[in-house]
Structures are given as structure tokens and as C-alpha cells.
């Protein structure tokens, strides 16, 4: 019986793409754009090549592999696995199931099949294909609200590290050029390191997130998701590295826009909020966006300058807010000393309603988001969060309403924008009911009288 033949080629393709994370969110399990290796991934030197044990086994696999109807293909795969549970091509059969379920958009079953590929033969070419699929899709499918999110993170980290281990055993297939082979290796490493970095980011292990994402984006400089996650890791580090956060955020925005990614506008808004929060104005940001569009990394000596101490504006509310928060924005020991001085203190201010929502932790608490600074209003953000549990009518406030409020300094977040949280109440009058929605005008069609 023949050894592995071209029959298996399609199940063992390894992507050769210059953008593993770029533009692929709709092709989680499929081959990337670009050339593909036309030979199976070779087994490690010490491993025996897979063998067909009978003509019937070969024919059963061939029938499954060439079936066009996805439902029938899955049925034939299941029949093959039941009849030949010890087949050397068990992992390849599961891989066929994985890809077929993906084509049917049945992602849970596709992921389950991917893990079965790895269980069947952890170091095979099929396993490498499945591990790449698992690591590529995880950041796009992961939800922090899932009850088992910690277990999901651990498994994804394990899968991605396993993938890196298998890549080290990856041998150049016959017929592939050295250039094709090296590009395939880079693609694989980029996907696995991106997943490891994403997991570390979720765990708030920012130093390791940066290390893994640097490795990922070195292999794929156009991976805007990897670059964006790296920007976040720099931003949320202690202390924040605003210069690298802004540069890589700008780089990710440019690449995402070029790729027509729907997240690009939201990322740009977040970048502007981050930049204005630290620098004070958006002056210079457009130049950084232009520079980052043509360079993967910032030039030597690149720095985003911190905002200058605010001058008195004559606006009582603005000046009081600046006095309260300026040192907090700068970070470091000065920020800690300032917070120690104001925590628990009563503060009265006024501003403009940016929005009202119920607290997810306690439905009896309303969170009123309040804008005070003109620079914040220009980015559609807010400067203060007021926790109000005594006035249900705060829910009737509308965006743009003016109000005054009083509360104790309870906590604050420093990035991407500094937002203190006060526990208190609105001290200005509250509307008894929500504002009436404008009525949709009724257009009457003038009809001509019937002909006599």
C-alpha cells in the first residue's frame, strides 16, 4: 500500500501569508492568502511515516476527502473514525471534520474537532494545522463573561505553547522552496505568539504580553491585532509607557484602516483619548499617525511629552477638576500622594451628562458619566463617574444635560483616560420622567379626485 500521497495534501496545508492576523478574521480555519506547501508536513525524524493498513481504509478515506456535500463529508468522516479507530490517518480525518464544521459556521464543533486532531497525534502536521486554527481563533471568540474564562485562558496558552514546540520539529516538505518554508514558519510562530500575548494581556501579565507580542509582530509586522494588543500592554503596564502605547496604537490604526477592519474607527477614538489624556491636546497626533504608517517601530528617541500643568481658565468647575486630578494623571509617587490626600474627601462639581447606565455589580446603583473638560467632550468621553444609589430619577437624565453633584472620592482609573469615581448624588433638579422622543412626522399624500 502506498505511503502518504497527494490525497492528503489538502488536509495538511500550512499557510504562507504575510498577514496571519491581518484580514483573516473571516477565515479562521481556512488557508491564508498566498502560496501553500504542496506536500504534507513531514513527521519528526524518529517518527514512522503513516501507513494505510488496507485498500478498504484507503478507499474510505478517499471517499471522505473527495465528498463535496459537507453533511455527507462529516458522516463519512465519522464512519471512517468508527471503522478504523487505530488508523494512522485518524488525525487527518478529524482535521477534515474541523474544516468542514468551520465551513458550516458551527464553531463549537470545529473547535472540538481541532482538539481531537491534537489528541490523536500531538506532533503531526494535522495537529500543527489544528493548533494554528485554535490559536488564531481564540482571541476573537474569547469572552470575559464566560464562567470558565480562566480555564479557557489556560487551555489556549497551553495550545499555543504546544504549537511553538511542534513548529520546532517542522521540516521543509519536498517541493517547497526555502523561502516558502521560512515564511510558513514565521506565519505559524506569529499566530502562536500572538495568542500567548493575548492570554497574558487578559491575565494582566503585561511584561510577558509585550515579550510575546514583540516576537509575533517581528515575524509579521503587518499583524494589526498583535500590534494593537501590544499597544494595550504598554498602556496598562505599571507605570504606563505612553510613548510605545501611542506609537503602536497609531500603527495598528493605520493597518486596520488599510485592511478595512470595522474596529479601526473605535481604535482611533481610543488612541485619541489616550493621547489627549497624557499629552493634554491632540496636537502632534496626526504626525505620529503619518510616521507610524511607514515604520514598524518608533524611531530612536521617540517620546510623547506629558501635558503641562493646567493654567487657570476662569471656569470654576474646570479649574477645580484640574486641581483635583492633575497629579493623578502624571502617575508615580506624586499620584499616590495626591490620592492619599483626597480619597474619601467630599467633592462638589458641575458638568455635562455624557451618559447614564445601571451598574452591572448592583442594579440599584446608577452610574452617571459626566464631562467637565472641553478636551474630553471633543473625544465624546467623560471625566467623572458618579455612583448614585439614592435617586432613581437620575435614569431620566439625557446626554447633554447640565447638572451639579456632590460625592466622596472612592476610586479612580488612570488609563486610557483618568476617571475618578465619586459616591454621592446629583444636587441639581432631576427630571421626573424621561424626555419625550420626537414624533416621526406623518407625510400625507394628496390624492386627486376620481375622474367623473
Helix content: 40-55%
What is the overall silhouette? elongated
Distance between termini?
92 Å
- H/E element string? HHHHHHHHHHHHHHEEHEEE
Number of helices: 15
CATH homology superfamily name of the domain at 6-203: Tetratricopeptide repeat domain
Largest sheet: 5 strands, mixed, barrel
Unreliable stretches (pLDDT < 50, length at least 5) are 1-46, 444-452
Q: Please give the order of strands in the largest beta sheet.
A: 1-2-3-5-4
Structural class: alpha+beta
Give me the count of strands: 5
Radius of gyration: 28 Å
| CATH 2nd-level architecture of the domain at 6-203 | Alpha Horseshoe
Give the CATH class of the domain at 6-203.
Mainly Alpha
Portion in beta strands: 5-15%
CATH topology of the domain at 6-203: Serine Threonine Protein Phosphatase 5, Tetratricopeptide repeat
- Mean pLDDT, to the nearest integer, reads 85
